[in-house]
Amino acid sequence: MPSVGRPQRRAFLTGGLAASAALITGCSSKSDSTGTPKPAAAGAAASTSPSPAAGARPDSPWSAFARLMEGNKRWVSGALQHPDRDPKRRQFVAEEQEPYGVILSCIDSRVPPELLFDTGIGDLFVMRTGGQVVAPVVVGSAEYGPLTAGTPLIVVLGHQRCGAIKAAHKALKDNKPLPGNLQSIAEALRPAYEVISKEKHADPVDAMTRVHIKQTSEDLRSNKDLAPLVQKGDLAVVSAYYSLDTGRVEVLTGAPSA
After folding, report:
1. d(C-alpha 128, C-alpha 135), whole Å
2. Distances in whole angstroms, Cα of residue 60 to Cα of each of 2, 64, 174, 224
3. What is the CATH number of domain 6-20+57-253?
4. Could you give the CA distance from residue 33 to residue 165 in angstroms, rounded to a whole number?
5. Tell me: the pLDDT tens digits for 61-101?
6. Strands 153-159 and 236-242
7. Residue 173 contacts by C-beta under 8 Å, 6 or more apart in sequence?
8. Distance of CA 35 to CAs 25, 27, 44, Å?
9. b or e along 159-168 (b: 16 or more beta carbons within 10 Å of the residue's beta carbon)?
10. Residue 210 phi, psi (nearest 5)
11. Which of 16, 35, 59, 118 has the fewest CB atoms below 10 angstroms from its CB?
């Protein structure tokens, strides 16, 4: 893959945890603000067990990936279980959380991760930005689960007919900046545009979307804080593409092995 623009992109992507963690320590995965885990109330075990359909928390990249893909199959077929979406589950995760997946996806209203993976409360850390573009605070948020809660999976999820990427493609092609802060999205997408602009594509916006998804997942996979976890097999970073037409999630790169 051509490296045009990548050094700046890589520098932009790394090192965001410190600032992000300082902002989100109140959302602790393990304990209260004092750092001391809160004991469960007496007799609460029976009423705060996980929803039966959810099963045990996946503890490996493969099991987390399999859980998500099974949920997506249910979404496609309509055989939804709606796990972890009841008062019992709300009570169970009220004191602490241990999500098994991190999803970085687009703000598009048609791409809600908890629905298309048929998951529920406390299952996923979800970040949504226009065109699933990243900045240091977003990377820090993506690092938060793996580095503090042992979350074994990150999915960078792009999608069909992305409006943000379509607008960025036109702006970069015509050399006409988008208004306001929208141009920052276009600039974040420039590396993907530079790749696809060197070849002819039947659908250049879709091609740009797929390249951007892969670039972002590779940047996260090689991030200085996440790379050691990936190398040890404790974390997988998957790039995936969601079809608005079918509801199916297509894996592009990084699928973990069993």
Report:
1. 12
2. 32, 6, 45, 21
3. 3.40.1050.10
4. 39
5. 999 999 999 999 999 999 999 999 999 999 999 999 999 99
6. parallel
7. 193, 197
8. 10, 12, 22
9. bbebebbbbb
10. -65, -40
11. 35
Which residue, among 117, 119, 115, has the nearest Cα to 57 in the 3D structure? 119
DSSP lists the bridge partners of residue 250 as: 241
Question: d(Cα 164, Cα 196) in Å, to the nearest integer?
Answer: 16
Whether the Cβ atoms of residue 169 and residue 197 lie closer than 8 Å to each other: no
Eight-state DSSP code of residue 190: H
**Six-digit token string for 125:** 């850390």
Q: Where exactly are the structural domains of the chain?
A: 6-20+57-253
Structure letter (DSSP) for residue 46:
G
> How far apart are alpha carbons 211 and 35 in whole angstroms?
41
pLDDT at 258: 86
Q: What are phi and psi of 184, to 5 degrees?
A: -65, -30
Q: What is the pTM of this model?
A: 0.82
What is the band of 28 on the pLDDT scale with cuts at 50, 70, 90? very low
Mean pLDDT of the 222-236 span: 97
For the chain, strand residue ranges (E) read 101-106, 124-129, 153-159, 236-242, 249-253
Q: Mind listing the pLDDT tens digit for each residue in 138-154?
A: 999 999 999 999 999 99
Class of residue 253 by CB neighbours under 10 A (exposed 0-12, middle 13-18, buried 19+): middle
Alpha helices in 163-222 (DSSP H): 163-174, 182-188, 190-196, 204-221
pLDDT at 43 over 80: no
179, 161 Cβ separation under 8 angstroms: no
